[in-house]
Design brief:
Blueprint lengths: L4 H14 L13 E5 L10 H14 L5 E5 L7 H10 L4 E5 L4 H10 L4 E5 L10 E5 L2 H15 L4 E6 L5 H17 L4 E6 L12 H13 L4 E5 L1 H13 L3 E5 L3 H4 L7 E8 H11 L8 E3 L1 E4 L11 H16 L13
Helix pairs in contact: 2-10, 3-4, 5-6, 5-11, 7-8
Amino acid sequence: MKRGPAFLLALCLFLTACTPPQVDCARSDVYCVGLVTDTGGLQDYGLTQSAWEGIQKALADGILQKADFIESVDARDYAKNLAYFADRKYDVIVASGISLDDETLQAADLYPDSVFIGLDQPSEPTRKNFISVTFPEDQGGFLAGVLAAGMTQTGVVGAACETAGIPSNWRACEGFRAGALHANPDLKVYVTYREDGSREDLFRDEAWGRQTALGMVKDGADIVFGVGGGTGQGAVVAASQAGAWAIGWEQDQAEVWPEAGKRILVSVTPDAGSILYQALVVIPAGPPPASLVGSMRLSPYHEAETFVPADLRQELSNLGTDLQNGGISTGVKPEEAQ
């Protein structure tokens, strides 16, 4: 069928109106942020998911004009995925997780015009275009310990933890010990680290986590805190299946393991969204800070909410604020004494 010039003009205008304008990240007045995940993906119920929430809030508030993410399928893709955003002139590139630390620093050297934010990536020496974001694991462990002290019926609680040679694990588990004894000095607190297993099973030794948790339950523990990737998850699942309460770490374990969710009190996760939002606000104003410290937060209580007294939940909320503000200290050293 033949169409006249007026029809073609109307069609052109219609198509133009329905096609979203392309955002040019190379423009100085356009603020673009890209997020590269580790192999856990975007919806990890922890660090990365929280980070994306912070980015989305910045976008909704008009701080950003464009936000995108790439979910890494293989660790060998980290450098390529970071370069994808840098080549397209994204102003800020967020790398989520310590497993990307080497690639993030290399990208910062290769692309000095972009600012790189490494979540859970402590780094020395610093780069002018790199922000290291870390989290106070001892404070998160402290909250878990206070919760365990408030919920135990046997007076015995435990933590099954990946090696103490990794400072973040040490801080989390010694924070748990400190929090439990702060709330009740008469408690018996077991804290066991995986020190004799193979390096290949680091963060993946679910069998050790299960055995350790079951041993604690046999010795009277009715609450077990599991720390350290799959190793800690093994402890969480085993404790819940044995009828004890479990406390998760890093991810909302009730979401990760719904079959164990009925016996998971809560999980302690990094609040990457809040600190990342703050960083995205201040970066355009001047030189980026070399480092930032975020906070730890409690996940929803899910099915356990009816079992955790309201006054204990309020106490934990207040305690979290005091820890962040420096009103109370955990007393935990940054790492295990050598």
